Hints:
The protein is α+β, with helices and mostly antiparallel strands. The protein has 5 domains: about 1-60 and about 110-195, Alpha-Beta Plaits; about 65-105, Alpha-Beta Plaits, CATH 3.30.70; about 205-315, no CATH class; about 330-505, Hypothetical protein af1432 (Orthogonal Bundle), CATH 1.10.3210; about 550-665. About 50% of the residues lie in helices and about 15% in strands. The strands form 8 sheets. The chain has a 5-stranded antiparallel sheet, with helices on one face. It has a 4-stranded antiparallel sheet with strand order 17-19-20-18, with helices on both faces. A hairpin with a 5-residue loop joins strand 9 (about 130-135) and strand 10 (about 140). The longest helix has 25 residues, at about 300-320. It is flat and about 100 Å long. The two termini are about 45 Å apart. The relative contact order is 0.05.
Amino acid sequence: MAEFFIELLSEEIPARMQAGAADELARVCGAVLTDLKATGIQTFYGPRRIALTATVAAEKAGGVIEARGPRENAPEAALAGFLGKFKASRDELVTEGGFFLLRRNEAAVAAADLIAASLPTALAKFAWPKSMRWGQSGDFTWVRPLRRMICLLDGAVVSMTLGPVTASHETEGHRFMAPGAFSVTSAADWQAKLRTRKVIADQAERRALVVEGLNAVAAQAGLTVAEDAGLVDEVTGLVEWPVALLGKIDADFMDLPPEVRELSMKVNQRYFALRDAVGKPAPYFAFAANIEARDGGAAIIAGNERVLRARLSDARHFWDLDLKTPLNASLPKLEKITFHAKIGTQLQRSERIAALAEQIANALGANAPLGAAAKTAGLLCKADLVTGMVGEFPELQGIMGGYYAEHMAQGWDGSVVGPAIKTHYQPKGPSDAVPTGVVSVSVALADKLDTLIKFFEIGEKPTGSGDPYALRRAALGVIRIILENQLTLPLKAFITNGELFAFIIERLRVKLRSEGQRFDVLDAVLAAGDDDNLVRVMQRVNAVAAFLAIEDGANLLIAYRRAANILRIEDAKDGPHKAEPVLGPLPLAEEEQLRDMLPFLAGETVNDFRDGNFARAMAAFSKLRTLVDAFFDKVTVNDPVPQIRQNRLRLLAQLRDTMHQIADFSKIEG
C-alpha cells in the first residue's frame, strides 16, 4: 500500500466554501482512486488550501474483463455507445447467445499512471459554488487563482498539470510570518512543516485553538465569550494561525441595544461579544488575528477598536434617528410595502395580525388590557421594517420594533407590547426559544397563522421540492409555541381550512419522527377522534405510547391485531359483524367476563381518557389484557354452532370498537 497526498494552494478561499470544497475533493479523488482500493481518506481545509490524504494500492489489478453488450440486431447507436463506454473497437467483440460480448485481457496499471491519467480531468470539473476563470487559456476555473499543487505517491511527485500549475513537492507557509516555498515528502511532513511555518493545517485543531484562545483572553478579564458556533466556524476559515486578542468598546456605545452592537461586530468585523460575571454584555470584544505581532497585538487591537468605533457610530446614528419617529407613526409607510401581490401590503397584514392576536389572547383567557396589548403589538409588529436600523441590519427586524415600542410608548404599555414585538418571529429555528406570556404568544401565533392562512388561500403551498415562503417553519413554530407553553387553544377556531389543519398535523408528525417519538401513535389517536387542541392530543399520544411500552400494553396490542384479523377474514365471508350487545348466558366464563368488562371500558374508562385521567384509564386497559388473553386461550371463535360463532364475533367487534375509542390501534407500527 502507498500514501497518496494532494494539496491545492490558492488565493484566499471564502470561509463558507471550505468545508464543501473538502467534501468535493474527497468525492473527486475517491472516484479516481476506487480501482486503487483507497482507504483512510482524510481531508484538510483552510483559508488558502484544501488537501487530502489516503492509503492506496500500488497498482490497479489486471485481469480479464468481460461485458455483455446489446443484442446482435440492436441499432448501431446502441452498439456505438457500448464500444465508447469501454473504449473498445468492433474487432474486439464476439457474439454469444444473440448478444455482443466484449472479452479483453487488461494489464495491471501502476497507481501513479492511473492518477496522472485520470485525476487532472476530474479536478478540472471541480464544483465550486462560485468560481473564476484563470490561466493563459482562460478556460480553467477555480474559486480563486490557483498557485501551487502537490501530488505525491509515497513521496514521489505524480506528474500532472491542472490549469496553470504543475504538481511538485512544494507548498507555502503563512503568507506574512513564513513566506516562501518549501518541500514536503508526505502528509505528516506537510503538517509538521506547515506548523513550523505558522499554519495549522487541520481544521478541527485550528477551531479548537480559536475557541481556547478566545476563552483564555476573556477569562483574563473576568469575562466569558457569548456562544456563537457559526462565527467560530467562520473565523476558523479565516485564519491559519489563530491569535486571540481582546479589544475595548467605548462606553458611549454601551447604551445601544446589545443586539445592535453584537450584530454589527459579528457581521462587519467577525468579533465575539463578551459577558460579565452575571451574564450581562461587557464593554469588550474578542477576535482572532491571523498573525503574531511583535508588540503583542497592541497595534492590531487599536486598529480594530478604531474600526469598531466607526461601525458603532453608524449604528448610533440610525438608533437616534429612528427614535425621533414614534413606531405607530411609521404605519402609513407599510401601505407602500407589498407583502405579496395576491395577499396585499404589510399594513393590511399588520391589521390582520392585530385582530387575530386579540382573538387568540381572548381565547387564552386574557383580561381586557392584555387583549388590547396583543392587538396593539400585532398592529406594530412590522412597523420597524421602515426604520433606518432594520434597513441597515435586516436581521434585527422585530427586535428593533420591540425596543422602539418600549422607548416610545404612545398609549400602550411598552413593557408588555415591546417584548411581544421583539419575539414575534420566534422560534426561527429548532434551537430557538419560543415566546412566553399571553401577549407575546398571541402575537407570535397570529403572525404565523396569518402567513399560513393567506398562502393556503392563494394556493401557494409547499411542494416536495420547495417551500419558498417557509410555511413548514411557520407551522412548526405554531406547534412549538402551543406545546411548550401548554396552551389550551382550539386551533380550528382560527383555521377554517381543513387542508391547512392537516398540514399542521403533518408537521407535528414530522417533528415527532425527527425526535424519535411515536408518530404512529399520533395517527392512531387522531383516528379515534379529531381534536384541534394540540396539548390534549399530545397528552393522549404520550399516554398511549407509555401504555404500549409496558408488557400489558404490548400484549393487548397483539390481541387487538388478532381480533382485527379474525374479523377481517370472517367479515369477508358473511359480515360485517357489528358490535351489537351479546345478551344472556354464554358457553364459557372467559367470554362472559370479557363481555361484562367491555361496557365499563366503553363508558367510564373512555370518559376518563377523554377527560385527561390517563393513569386511571390506562390502568383499566391493563386489566383488559388478562381477560383478552384468557379469551383467546380458551375460546374458539369459529364455533360450529352459528349462534355461538355470531356472538363471539360480535364480542370481538365490541373489543375492537372499544379500543378504537382510545386510538385506532391498526395504525400502530411494529
